[in-house]
Amino acid sequence: MRKLSVDRLKPGMVLARSVETERGDALLAQGVVLTEQFICGLKGHGFHAVYVQNGIADDVQPPQILSPMVRELTFRHLKDLFDMIEGATSDVQTDAQRNKMVEQLAASLRPQFVELYHDVEKIVDEVVDKETITGIVSLKSYDNYTFEHSVEVTVIGILLGKRMRLNIAELHQLALGCLCHDIGKLVVPKTVLGKRGKLTDDEFAVIQRHPQAGFDTVHHLMGPSDIIARHVVRQHHERQDGKGYPRGLRGTNRFVAGKPSFGQGLILPAAEIAAVADVYSAISSDRPYRLAMSPQQIMSTMQQMAGSHLNRDVVARFLSGLPSYPIGTHVLVISGRLRGFRGVITRVKPAQINAPTLRVIFDARGQMVAPFEVDTSKEMGLSLAAVPSSVSPIELDFDQTSPNMVSVHFEPGQR
Hints:
415 residues; alpha+beta; Molybdopterin biosynthesis moea protein, domain 2; Hypothetical protein af1432; 3-stranded antiparallel sheet; disordered C terminus
């Protein structure tokens, strides 16, 4: 199985995973043979990539932490709420008018919002016992990005919140805030949200309005005890160096669970978790203006952002649970006795997330071999490099390694 850009799809390829519409309905089912019409339909719906069968470890399925049923229900409830708010406020001219309209509609919106409380409970129940931060990122189209992204940030936030030792009540508040964190983007034109290339100063100023707009919206919908959730919505773009928005709060680069920092000019700890989850989901997803980063690029980027942008303690704890090579990653062996061989990651052990099991499929000449598995934790001098989705592992030449292929070296017992 291989994630492939829609620009590289060809008639006759077989879908390895179903593709859903912005409503969560099946657009194309797993096992469908692609035609020119289907490929044009995928492009028309704004999909950047899909999973296809390629005869190379098609039995290896990247794990899905959240069940499709809960993901779909949450997606629909969130989209319904957004649609109701957008429909009621589409003609207002100012933030004050919009805020007044939401306040007047709060009673009618409340039943729909209550569904999100139920969704949060289901998500926490499914996710809280998982040990590694993988199997989260989904395929997204232009139309469904905001909703899929919000669900992903919620799942990541719960996983990370547990690692930061939040209690169950705090996890529910964090999850609710993450689920609603981008509701303020209803004030941002879709042309700005999906723009290719750099935003102008005026466009970025519009983007910067969404945390406060979101806070104003959920203030009328959340209960009086949801203070943490409301401030996650408001603070998820604040920075450790005080250069974030909307209020220029700062962080300490330390994390102490159970000690909220209201009224001290500091970012709420739950919002610091949400910020890390938000960044991870964003850079690991395909967007109109750039492709998703590789796992190694993600790690490097988040390490660079730690300290100034993101809480250093939270990033360190996050990366300690993020595998260098998630299940399903196609890799090239660049050192050791199997130098030049290629294969796919089939297993990641929670106790050794950076020493995965590799199924070798091709030799150094590109010839298919009888597949065999290698425990990288027991291999001396072994280094791997991820094969970008734009490169076929069959066509890959060891001497023409892509600059996007970042390697990781393994030693026996490495954790």
